[in-house]
């Protein structure tokens, strides 16, 4: 009896191995229908039960699936077990602001290792991110680098990332993080420390009426706000929520501008503004000047990201250096290690560097506010 069982075990194991080799060959593609149990039983000259047991092994591994009354089909998982040489990069934007240089850093590493990029953008929309990931899961890709959209909001599509893990598609988050996915691979800036350095710089210059303008729907905005609040606390300056202007992706070109103008025109004292990034700082400088105030003589302004552009009058911003290409290179290198099955850091955090320029200045003693 035991010899019979051993022979049966060898039969279905051998059949399973042959079927796996065939499924992984260039003859098969996801969605193809497998021959029926009867056809396979006749081909291998075994019982349907032996064939069924061999097929169940491939089902457990996720390479085929059964449709009741129709048969068995090759699953999408197979698509991602064949190396394609394609890596997807999903960013909130592709041609705007810092993103071309981040992508350039990614491409520098991946192209030199024989990979082609598939570029996607979400417009910082959750719907756009879901659409991109859903489409990519149907493509032939070896890995994904993704900047999360509206990362400060709760991630309700974790099942897409779970599906990537099921298909064994490695992925790396860049620039932002979802709280629910914090244990996944990330390459980030230390945004809290960057904003802390900017705010402390203003405090060291004698500023006390320091306003903050931050983006509320991504994790960078929340962390930069935290750094601003921490610097105030360490300097003994009370945190005042009325001195913080929050904005969303959709109103980023309007709300910081109009919000700060209302505050200045109301007569409230403002002698410095910490901005979410350099783009917002440009809007803020224009808003300040339209009220008759000067930058930096009346109000100092800081940016973030080192956009490397000046305002219309040639003023350069005090900001935080953003190593755009390096950020991209680090994410690409991390992904390559994962694709190769090599050990790699799961979280890389780049420390900030303060760059002091023309948009901030020392407050004269008589300008200091008391109290």
What would you say this structure looks like, in words?
It is a single chain. With 371 residues, the chain is α/β, with parallel strands linked by helices. Helices cover 40% and strands 15% of the residues. The chain is built from eleven helices and 14 strands. The protein has helices at residues 2-23, 37-44, 48-60, 99-112, 126-136, 158-166, 191-204, 219-234, 255-265, 278-290, 324-339; strands at 64-67, 71-74, 86-91, 116-121, 143-146, 171-174, 186-189, 210-215, 244-247, 272-275, 300-302, 319-320, 347-350, 354-355. Strands 4-3-5-6-7-13 form a six-stranded parallel β-sheet, sandwiched between helices. The chain has a four-stranded parallel β-sheet with strand order 9-8-10-11, with helices on both faces. Strands 1-2 form a two-stranded antiparallel sheet. A hairpin with a 3-residue loop joins strand 1 (64-67) and strand 2. It is elongated and about 95 Å long. It starts with a helix and ends in a 16-residue tail after the last strand. The model is unreliable at 1-7 (pLDDT under 50).
Strand and helix map with partners:
Blueprint (H helix, E strand, L loop, with lengths): L1 H22 L13 H8 L3 H13 L3 E4 L3 E4 L11 E6 L7 H14 L3 E6 L4 H11 L6 E4 L11 H9 L4 E4 L11 E4 L1 H14 L5 E6 L3 H16 L9 E4 L7 H11 L6 E4 L2 H13 L9 E3 L16 E2 L3 H16 L7 E4 L3 E2 L16
Helix pairs in contact: 1-3, 2-3, 4-11, 7-8, 9-10
